[in-house]
Amino acid sequence: MFENLSEKLQRVFKNLRGEGKLTAENMEVALREIRVALLEADVHFRVVKQLIESVKQKAMGVEVLTALSPSQQVIKIVREEMVKILGTHQSKLRMANEPPTIVLVVGLQGSGKTTSTGKLARWLSKNDHSPLMVSVDIYRPAARQQLSVIGRDIRLPVYEGAAEETTPVELARAARREAMQTGRDVVLVDTAGRLHIDDQLMEELRLLKEALGPTEILFVADAMTGQDAVKSADEFHKQLGITGVILTKMDGDARGGGALSIRFVTGQPLKFVGIGEKFDALEPFHPDRVVSRILGMGDVLSFIEKVEGNIDQKKAEEMQRKLIDNEFTLEDFRDQLKSLRKLGSLESILGMMPQIGPLKDLKNAKVDEKEITRVVAIVDSMTHKERDNHMIINGSRRRRIARGSGTSVQEVNQLLKQYSQARKMMKTFSGGFMGKRLGKLKLPFFGDQP
Ligand SMILES: Nc1nc2c(ncn2[C@@H]2O[C@H](COP(=O)(O)OP(=O)(O)OP(=O)(O)O)[C@@H](O)[C@H]2O)c(=O)[nH]1
Ligand SMILES: [Mg+2]
């Protein structure tokens, strides 16, 4: 979701990497480029200004950190300042002391309120809550029907309303009553949207706020609308007082600057991001992770921690040598997969990696835990000789291996293909980006060349 910005910043950092130390000149150039990258990514100019200012100030006094290279120093500072702007902590959804908690979902037309209401309900129900949804969009009958359909899809209740409940306030109050009677602890109120902010809409929302005393007023912002989303968030906050933001459509080609700006401009935290049309496409917003993603570092730090805790250093070094000498056998391949499994799911590992360079192609790679189990079974069914030299595995051997492992010849073929690809890929990694990034740390898959 931040590919562009991320790529641009990477380039700036790369240019700095060649420099021996931070000087006034190379810092000036880097800052100018960072500034352009941020503005092009649609980050609000005030945010850019503040960020550049504080990075500049901090960078002046960095001589102390001689352990880091200039680019590392700049990345570190930029990172710290960005996190500051986005908020250092993840902002959780607040709950009322006395249930039910009321959450007003507000925003402009088509920003994704109704979809997000459904997603939020699902997320809540997966996190030990029992939500009740209600639509108070009395202007479009189809709007209320849309929420009812969503409720059926995700099997969570929607308060449908009675004939005499004709105003938003009446509907929402009735829903709250229903929630109390049926033991639901959160009421999600999906409100009507307007093309533009107008007095009637604001008045309606103010009445709802007064009548319900919501714990959260979440502004739903469409990331694709860039600075317009920031502006309307600001306006809603001034007129109504929002308590948080859901940024939707971050899966699209939004430049992502809105995410960096909304918090700064409104002072209210991003709580969730929408990353797709499906109902599970909602993520709690983690400022530090997002910043890492923007800077193209993935969660490298937590990855390193994980790896260090889980991998036998000696074995890793041995693997490393084999890799370089092209002695990496199917047996090693199996052991690698086994040790990867110890780290947690492959998917979660890939999610922590920088999404650039060779790893970018891996982003869409489908990773399946069951597949690892299958691979292990297949390799276990091979003879020693076969594991040492995959070239001898001909048709009849493949059939025998498939039988022995309870798989099909196709699956054996697929594994052999994956294995040759992995060999190739690892060779790329070992001299490439990750090798340099991780420095002296020797990792089985991503280590340095001696
Ligand atoms: N790709 C993507 N599409 C989304 C996301 N969130 C919502 N949408 C889509 O955006 C469109 C509008 O979503 P709605 O939830 O109906 O928007 P709304 O704010 O309720 O609209 P009104 O009630 O008309 O004001 C739908 O087609 C949704 O599928 C998202 O995170 N990613
Ligand atoms: Mg709607």
Keywords:
450 residues, alpha/beta, Four Helix Bundle (Hemerythrin (Met), subunit A), Rossmann fold, 434 Repressor (Amino-terminal Domain), 3 domains, 20 helices, 8 strands, flat, disordered C terminus, binds magnesium ion
| Overall pLDDT confidence | 80
Major sheet: order of its strands?
A: 3-2-4-1-5-6-7-8
CATH topology of the largest domain: Rossmann fold
Order of helices and strands: HHHHEHEHEHEHEHEHEEHHHHHHHHHH
Into how many domains do the coordinates divide?
3
Largest sheet: 8 strands, mixed
Report the span from N to C terminus.
Answer: 35 Å
- CATH homology-level superfamily of the largest domain: P-loop containing nucleotide triphosphate hydrolases
Tally of alpha and pi helices: 20
| Relative strand content | 5-15%
CATH architectural grouping of the largest domain: 3-Layer(aba) Sandwich
- Beta strands, count: 8
CATH class of the largest domain: Alpha Beta
Give a brief outline of the structure:
With 450 residues, the chain is of the alpha/beta class. The protein has 3 domains: 3-86, SRP54, nucleotide-binding domain (Four Helix Bundle (Hemerythrin (Met), subunit A), Up-down Bundle); 101-285, P-loop containing nucleotide triphosphate hydrolases (Rossmann fold); 300-437, Orthogonal Bundle (434 Repressor (Amino-terminal Domain)).
Architecture overview:
With 450 residues, this protein is an alpha/beta fold. It folds into three domains: 3-86, Four Helix Bundle (Hemerythrin (Met), subunit A) (Up-down Bundle); 101-285, Rossmann fold, CATH 3.40.50; 300-437, Signal recognition particle, SRP54 subunit, M-domain (434 Repressor (Amino-terminal Domain)). The protein is 56% helix and 8% strand. It has helices spanning 3-17, 24-40, 45-60, 70-86, 113-126, 141-154, 168-182, 199-212, 227-239, 257-266, 287-294, 300-310, 313-324, 330-342, 346-352, 369-380, 384-388, 395-405, 409-431, 433-437, and strands at 101-106, 131-135, 158-159, 186-190, 216-222, 244-248, 270-274, 282-284. An eight-stranded mixed β-sheet has the order 3-2-4-1-5-6-7-8, sandwiched between helices. Helix 10 (257-266) links the parallel strand 6 (244-248) and strand 7. Helix 1 packs antiparallel against helix 4 (70-86), helix 14 runs antiparallel to helix 16 (369-380) and helix 18 crosses helix 19. The longest helix is centred in the last third of the chain and has 23 residues, at 409-431. The site of guanosine-5'-triphosphate has 20 residues, from helix 5.
